[in-house]
Each structure stands twice: as structure tokens, then as C-alpha cells.
Amino acid sequence: MTDNIRSIPRPLVRTNQWVIVLCVVLTWVTGIEWLLLIPLLSGLSGLLFGFNPVMQLAKRFLRKEPKEYLPEDWEQQQFNQKIAVSFLAIGFISFLLGWNTLGFIFTILVAVAAFVAILGFCVGCFIHYQWGQYQYRRSIKKI
User: Fold this and answer.
1) What is the CA radius of gyration of the chain?
2) Residue 60's CB: how many other CB atoms inside 10 A?
3) Nearest to residue 38, comparing CAs of 75, 49, 65, 25?
4) Is residue 17 within 8 Å of residue 58, measured between CB atoms?
5) Strand pairing category for 7-9 and 71-73
6) What is the pLDDT confidence band of residue 3, given thresholds at 50, 70 and 90?
7) CA distances (Å), 136 to each of 76, 113, 133, 141, in order?
8) Residues 118, 45: Cα–Cα separation, whole Å
9) What are 27-86's pLDDT values in tens digits?
10) Reported pTM
11) Beta strands in 41-119, from DSSP E residues, in sequence order
12) Contact present, 111 and 24 (Cβ < 8 Å)
């Protein structure tokens, strides 16, 4: 049996998080909602095709082999990316439709979550863990 656990080097995850935060803040400052397409389309590409352009670009700047960095769980990052892409999409569409309050709510949520993750607490991980606990408790009650 082979232990092939998929992971992503932490610097690539951090770069992706910084791109989310910076694009959202730049959108707020400039009013150019199209900037949200950078992390949105990159994240969507990562989810659908396994190719995140932001991470691929950042990979070129790694000084060590990817295996030498602290790994982030690939599956957990996919879950987090689904949340981020969903919130960015809702924010982007809301801004396009002139629903600025809704746009700000969803972009604030994703920017805060990404920034807090940079600081060390993963909101998506917490949600994923709590969801798993809920499903487990529910399955126990059925037995």
C-alpha cells in the first residue's frame, strides 16, 4: 500500500490567499469589480482543471523543492477554494448588478477569511471539521 497524500506547499497557498485579499481590497478602493476575476477565475480553474494560474506562477519563485515546504492538505484546500470561488462569484455578480451591499458583504467575508488564514486560523477548515462532526453525529443517531 502506498501512502500518496496529496498536498500543496504552504507558500503557494499563502500566495493564493494574498491574491484574494489584494484583489478584493483593490476592488473596493478602485471600484473596478473586474479585478475580482483574477482570484475567481484562477480558483475556478484550479477546481475544474487542477491548474491554478496564481499558484503555477508562484511555483516558479520557490527556492526549494515543493516537497521541502510545510504541506497543506489538498482536499481541505479544495473545500476552502470552493467557498472562496462561490463568495467571489456572488460578490462579482452583485457588483455587476449594482447590488453593492451584497457585493461588499460577500467580498468582505472572503477577504477576512483569507486574511485570517494568512494569520494562521483557517475558517474553511473549521467549517469543514464542524460539518464532518455534524454528519458523524447524525449517522450515529440512525444506528
Assistant:
1) 17
2) 6
3) 25
4) no
5) antiparallel
6) low
7) 18, 25, 5, 9
8) 22
9) 999 999 999 999 999 999 999 999 999 999 999 999 999 999 999 999 999 999 999 999
10) 0.92
11) 71-73
12) yes
